[in-house]
Amino acid sequence: MLSNTLPSTEGPHPDPAWRGRVTLAVLGLALLWPMMVASEFKPSILFDWQSLNATGRFLASFVPPAHSPEFLLMLLRETWQTIAIATAGLTLALLGAIPATLLITEKMSISRLGTGRMRPITALVRQVVRWLLVLLRSVPELVWALLLVRIVGLGPAAGVMAIALTYCGMLGKVYAEILESTDAQASNALLANGSSRLTALLYGVLPEAAAELVSYTVYRWECAIRGSVVMGFVGAGGLGQRMDESMKMLSGGEVSSMLLVFMLLVAGADAVSRQLRKRLG
Question: How many CB atoms lie under 10 A from the CB of residue 199?
């Protein structure tokens, strides 16, 4: 009786796809290894005694975090400037991304309603705008900041413009993809009855895509905050520029305080995103 209830050790493997999984894992490792060699990544360096000793001394300097009144006042001022850089840059990006989205979204094309195909001039304009968005987002904001610092000088203006250029390309592309994935029935009905693209967007597409659009926008705002900190290391102002100065002076306590504030900023942006999703959901 017991032999009938015990599972058999013979027969097919419990996972029919195990051969494919093992093959993909081996191929993945075979592709990863030359990439690690080309990038000169050597994990053994992390466990070298000199590296561990230097890491320990550096981390030990983080405690306690700097908390003098003068430093905290400066930290508050630079944090506010970092938020201002990210918010202003994202706002400028939206001013360019929203019109670009209306132009490149095929679902919003009036010329397609009758024949299903766009007119040649409309298709050409749409393709040119797509290429422009590709150009803007293909250059990282840090590279834009390096170029703009030489044009407009040191300070937050370069960071604002760098975020605006890169994020305009990102937002325009993703917004168009989100709108293309929505149901076209309501927008087509509005366009067929003489409504403008903007009206069709506001009343036909946005009600369905609003939650996803807002969620992605807030996520990009969070990314802009992180990007503004990084751009500070090349002279674009904000918290990153002060952190660069503190690191050059080997002031671990100041760096520790700035990192804590930076984590609070990202957590705050995540909380804002959750609240907006709840209200729109």
Answer: 14
Structural domain of 159: 69-280
Phi-psi domain of 253 (left: phi exceeds 0; alpha: psi -120 through 50; beta: other): alpha
Number of domains comprising the chain:
1
Tell me what pLDDT residue 281 has: 62
Among 50-59, 61-70, 84-93, the least confident range: 50-59
41 found inside a domain: no
For the cut 60, the answer to whether the pLDDT of residue 42 exceeds it is: yes
Quick check: bond before 64 cis, omega within 30? yes
Q: List CB contacts of 241: < 8 A, sequence separation 6 or more.
A: 78, 232, 233, 235
0.70 surpassed by pTM: yes
Q: Is 91 exposed, middle or buried (0-12, 13-18, 19+ CB in 10 A)?
A: middle
- Residue 16 falls within a domain, yes or no? no
The answer to whether residue 23 is domain-embedded is: no
pLDDT score at 109:
60
